[in-house]
Amino acid sequence: MSTVTAGFQILPNGKDMHTDGVIPEVLNLVKESGLEFYIGPMETVIEGDLNEVLEIIKKAQHVGTEAGASECITNIKLHYKPSGIEIEDKVY
Length: 92
Description:
By secondary structure, the protein is of the alpha+beta class.
């Protein structure tokens, strides 16, 4: 399958929930994934095989709930192109 890029934003929610501890944990997960990534002010973009990308996003939601959120709202934008699309094509 072609390389895709996905911009995603995890919004942990819960009573008295503070995201300052959750977001760094999500970013560590992304960094440790081995996939190419770009951390922006409003979302993180990752690049890879669609299944790999979606697996990281799924794990990121679990990071939020394991940190105490009762739920996580996740915004995802996928960019697919048959010949593949890379972060470098989009930001540089």
